[in-house]
Amino acid sequence: MTEFRFLHAADIHLDSPLKGLAQYEGTAAESIRTATREALERLVGLAIEEQVSFLIIAGDLYDGDWRDYRTGLFFVSQMGRLNRAGIPVYLLYGNHDARSQITRRLTLPGNAHVFQSRSPQSFEIGELNVALHGQSFRQRDVPDNLALSYPQPSPGAFNIGVLHTGLGGMGGHENYAPCSLADLINKGYDYWALGHVHRAEVLHTRPHIVFPGNLQGRHVRETGAKGASLVTVDNGEITELDALHCDVVRWTVVTVDLGPAAGFGEVLDRIRNALEDTVDTRAGGRLLACRIVLRGRTEVHDRLLTDGEQLLAEARSISLGLGEDTAWVEKVVVATGPPVSPETMANREDALGELLRMLQGADSDADLRRRIETDIGGMIRRLPAEARSDVDDSVLKAAIDGDHAGVIAGVTPFLSARLLGDQD
Ligand SMILES: [Mn+2]
């Protein structure tokens, strides 16, 4: 038997809208906006460069229905590059691009083979002695264990199962087309090309069961290097499994411990140092999209809480100072504390101490709760529905949920920071 290599990608989410980005200007925002397309271009470039025998896409190529034909035309243009290079593609649709989800369609070039959604389907590559088995999703929510109905392995061939699955329910992903690891191991295939879970993971070797992760991180919960798996097969055995990085923008969380930082200027210095360090160690030459988290007990805690807008602008200014398309700051989270603990503060013999003691008991104060419900509750009910869903701010979320204790706990640090700030 011959030696050959193939690429396994999944969860490309082409043209996926990036939440919260529309309000930002500049080249970094533009790079992030086009990142899923550029990552696909890189994948195709690598397939050609590495001279792979074929490419597998294991579902969620598209994020959902196309806004217009441009998304489909872009994909066809990339398939055309592979067609010219003589590289076939085996494409399976998942929950995001299930048959029922995509209303517009384009005919694909002859090198693209799509797994049908009616029942499992097999493709054979005679000259390599490879058999691929798979089934696309018919609709978004597939409750059945698809793997069980996949065909028996083709005797003597290198068998690949292509499957979009939540497996047994992996953290943060809907458990579509559920199955167990044992179902896959026992099938008798050589390689399972999975999709759906966005974090890359090799779940088993011999047989290999692999989530390559998504091709390009789309928000701060998808951090680190992203790409596809390059698999080398020699004489029917997998001899190498490499992660190829295709991401053009890399997401990361930068935690900055402020310790006893005494001034706003010092805070900015520490942010700058941390960003420089992160660009050097984690970016791999790509644009780094960062969420900065400030921690520690610090003198400037009050100012950080009350001057959020300036803090974010300064952090963005620092990132721009590192060079064009080097780093972009998505958000600065202030998770610092005052230099003295809240308990010590509450023991103060002054008006602030009194206020804090009052707030500590506020949740059991029926009168105060009624006033919060009247004032804030009324305001929340006037918010449009879309503003009430998918809320990032914990205090606002507590207010929407009618969690008065959460509102009081959430505003206490801001209130005491304001009061302390006014003393200066
Ligand atoms: Mn999926």
Name the features:
single chain; 424 residues; alpha/beta; Purple Acid Phosphatase, chain A, domain 2; Transcription Regulator spoIIAA; six-stranded mixed beta sheet; 13 helices; binds manganese (II) ion
Which ligands are bound? manganese (II) ion
Q: Tally of extended strands?
A: 15
Low-confidence stretches: none
- Main β-sheet: number of strands, strand sense, barrel status? 6 strands, mixed
3D shape: elongated
CATH top-level class of the largest domain:
Alpha Beta
Structure notes:
The structure is a single chain. This protein has 424 residues and is α/β, with parallel strands linked by helices. The protein folds into three domains: 3-247, Metallo-dependent phosphatases (Purple Acid Phosphatase, chain A, domain 2); 248-339, Transcription Regulator spoIIAA (2-Layer Sandwich); 349-424, no CATH class. Helix content is 34%, strand content 23%. It has 13 helices and 15 strands. The chain has a six-stranded mixed sheet. Strands 5-6-7-8-10-9 form a six-stranded mixed sheet. The N and C termini lie far apart (79 Å). The model has no long low-confidence stretch (mean pLDDT 89).
Provide a compact summary of the structure.
The protein is of the alpha/beta class and 424 residues long. The chain has helices at residues 27-33, 35-49, 70-84, 181-185, 264-282, 301-306, 308-321, 342-346, 351-360, 366-381, 385-388, 394-400, 404-423; strands at 3-9, 54-58, 89-92, 112-114, 121-125, 130-134, 158-164, 191-195, 201-204, 208-211, 227-234, 237-245, 249-257, 287-297, 327-337.
